[in-house]
Please model this.
Amino acid sequence: MKDLYDVIVVGAGPAGSTAARYAAADGASVMVLEKDRDVGYPVRCAEAVSHEGVAQFIEPDPKWIAATVSKFRIVVPNGNSIVPRLDGIGYILERRIFDYELAKLAVQEGAELVTKAYVYDLLKVNGKIEGVRALIKDQKVEIRSKVVVGADGVESRVGKWAGIDTTCHIHDMESCAQVTLSGVSVEDGILDFYFGEKVAPGGYLWVFPKGRNTANVGIGISVETAKERAPVRYLEDFIEKRYPNAAVLTRIAGGVPCATTCDEIVKNNVILVGDAAHQVNPVSGGGIISGMIGGMLAGQVAAEAIRRNDLTFLREYEARWHKRLGWRHEVFYCIKEAIYEFSDETLNKLCDEARKLPEEKRTVGGIFRTALWNRPSLLLEVAKVFIS
Ligand SMILES: Cc1cc2nc3c(=O)[nH]c(=O)nc-3n(C[C@H](O)[C@H](O)[C@H](O)COP(=O)(O)OP(=O)(O)OC[C@H]3O[C@@H](n4cnc5c(N)ncnc54)[C@H](O)[C@@H]3O)c2cc1C
Model:
């Protein structure tokens, strides 16, 4: 271990490994600290990504692709459904292997990585952050760096230690439960999303095929709603009805911050990426690719700040993130707020209207326009993002 690193990354999820990879590729000395024994495990994810999103970072490889999908279906409360036209494909990953590959890419660029390395505080000297304090193989160590990247996921503490407000309101925090089922008959190549008061109030339930009669079946609803009834109860009801004889291979629970990006993602020499910065798409709850984009921008900016010997340059990361995805997440947030308030009746009506659209107009955009027609105030909410 070196006496001093340019960058310490806390957490080897997709955002952390990508930040480390790009910082190292641009010449910074990088140390990644991961608290778990294995990178990529345990998996708390439904594992869906778009080809377009993932291919900008890594060549798709069958070893971490469990299934390829080319369609998605929205099922509304009365059981009707619509399959919007999609211009691309997506994958259900084997995240355990995928995360591992991302970490390997960082190491190939020269980053060092240590597992079973739990960061329990920032190293502060006369009020200045000079690295982290960690527990590595039961030994307390101090590791020094010029920049600290908090990539420690939804339960991030790095931000709080640095004085950044990372609180996510319970209304925006999705509480999720998921099982991986085997022995189920699911249609390959299509992602199913179920909406409605009885199935997933204020959220949605998903069935993602993983190949060989296996599927990730999960639900995400706001913590606010989950206080009334736990998401796992809705999930159990669904499985009891649909897949009563399935074998449960894994059970997971976790949170997703479906909010806009934290107001501050850089403070002095600490920067946040991925779930730690709330870089998740607020509508879909997908945070793998957006976290990797955040990680890439953070890694590049951190390396450049080191080269310039000017840590005030780290602020540039905030600007680049906002330009690349942050502003879009603000639009998506408005859309989420509207969609999740739709009554069962409105959802049924929307589906009927959308099914009347000619095949070529049955795109996500076409369906969204139908939703606008049914709720014109949504347009105003979205417009606010552009004029604020
Ligand atoms: C049920 C569920 C389903 C989901 N489905 C999807 C989906 O289908 N598609 C999608 O795109 N997204 C999905 N997401 C969201 C996605 O999993 C996250 O957005 C993504 O993993 C964020 O990556 P990250 O690198 O920011 O954080 P993480 O992947 O959470 O990685 C953070 C890492 O930091 C480590 N760490 C934490 N604290 C410390 C510490 N103190 N010291 C050292 N290491 C530490 C952790 O062990 C972990 O390895 C889902 C989430 C859930 C809960």
Summary: The chain has a mean pLDDT of 93. The chain has three domains: 4-60+94-169+259-328, 68-88+170-257, 335-387.
